[in-house]
Known about the structure:
Blueprint (H helix, E strand, L loop, with lengths): L1 H53 L3 H4 L6 E5 L5 E4 L14 H9 L1 E7 L5 E9 L5 E9 L1 H39 L16 H33 L4 E6 L4 E4 L1 H6 L19 H11 L4 E7 L2 E12 L2 E11 L1 H36 L8 H29 L8 E4 H11 L1 H6 L2 E7 L3 E4 L1 H17 L4 E9 L3 E7 L7 H4 L11 H7 L5 H11 L3 E7 L3 E9 L2
Parallel strand pairs: 12-14
Antiparallel strand pairs: 1-2, 1-5, 3-4, 4-5, 6-7, 6-10, 8-9, 9-10, 11-13, 14-15, 15-17, 16-17
Helix pairs in contact: 1-4, 8-9, 9-15, 10-12, 12-15
Amino acid sequence: MRRRIFLSICTVALGSILLFGAFAIGMIYQTKSRDTLADLRAKAYYLANAMEGSGQDYLKKVRGYSGRITLIGADGVVLFDDREPAANMENHFSRPEVRQALETGAGYAQRLSGTLGERTIYYALRLQDGKVLRVSATAESVLGGALRMLPWMAVVMGLLTILAGFVARRQTRAIVEPINKIDMDRPLAENAYEELSPLLRRIAAQKSELGAQLAMQKERQEEFDTITRNMDEGLVVVNREGIVISLNESAKDILNVREGNPCGRHILTLSRNIALEQAVHGAAEGRRVSEVIDLDQKKYQMTASPSTSSGEVQGIVILLLDETEKALAEQKRREFSANVSHELKTPLTSISGYAEIIHNGLAKPADIREFAGRIHGEATRLVSLVDDIIRLSRLDEKGGNVARLQVNMYALAQRIAESLAQKARKNGIAIEVRGEIATVHGVPSILDEVLYNLVDNAIRYSKNGTVEITVAKDGKAVTVAVRDEGIGIPKEHQNSIFERFYRVDKSHSRESGGTGLGLAIVKRGVMFHGGNVTLTSEPHKGSTFTITIPYH
């Protein structure tokens, strides 16, 4: 900045000097030309008047004139010249000043001399006898004047350059020093000159705004630290490379961090758990990873969520929830379901068979027929329950060695809609399939069971209206949304709706024939394929279940 100001002032000063010199030379040139022409005109008239009395011989008597005198005939022939013999001179009829004098009475012209530094000015006057009297004088040209004045101009320009440099340095210091002395903590305390006021006011306003933002940020950070410090869940924040930025006390206990500050270290130096490593890698690619992991003989629900900015992952938030007790309870429930299903399926099948015999009238008619029908209906419901339990057990066991195939979810949705169309019409419901063809790599029977249960539930818990099945895909996964206009699910039940045997309205579930395992099968089936299921619902406005399944 200092250099730019200095150079600007020096440039302006030198430019001004050059312009002034050129203007001065031009003015001197014009003035001298005008004075020389006036002197030539006076001399020409003087000589013309003298020749009227003495004739051409008077010109031979003229002495002491520094210029040149030439007498030219009307035909351009030189009659007299005080420098050269007239006989040796060429015809002057074509000279501009001579022709102009012959035509108008007087003529003027100037021509450069043999040297670039001089020029000759001519003035011609037509006499009464038709002859032309021409007088001339030599004067400096513009270039000659400039060359003559150049040494003086160089001296003046040198002195002015030194003066301009001195003034520029002082002015630059006067401009820059007040800016350098601004106290950023108190920008309005000193104001060297008025032009700085807008800048200082803006700095003060921005400082005040930054101070408020920093105070707010500090307050939020303290609140965040207080909240996370008292959380039972473990919270770890890492950047996209996996370097730990922050973690709370619960996370330190879960990851068994006892000494030192773990911030700045890689997450894998705190725990070598393979699932944790895969979750961090998946979140770094922009995927939300949720999985149960084993740490120190305990089970934790780990959720790794990417934090994005402008479409790029900037960090990863890892939440660790202790699921040990829940996992044990789930394990006991699975064991109970498996044992009970094997114990009850054979007798219940027999009951169903005997009930069919009674229902077909092979027993005594009377009241046994109606009673047998009820036994048959109950037995059928129990068989369905056992089947659901078996399905859940298989899903909990990761499906065994079931082969995976390419499954067109849009075609699957259409097929299920057709199979449930009659049931839907009985409830006054229309089924619509929308979306696009989307294929996933999965187990067809499990995906069929998942989607069938969702659509069947939508029909079962709706009266009239429409059930919409929408299939969509993006770059990484396929989503299938089943929306109904049924009774809806209250918010307080939505977190538990996927638990086994959980019913929002037990009486309605019995009437509709539900086993309480349909949504559990849905959740386990989706989890088996590495996906997730979400619910959006309002009472009396309907529900929307959305399953998301990765392509692979």
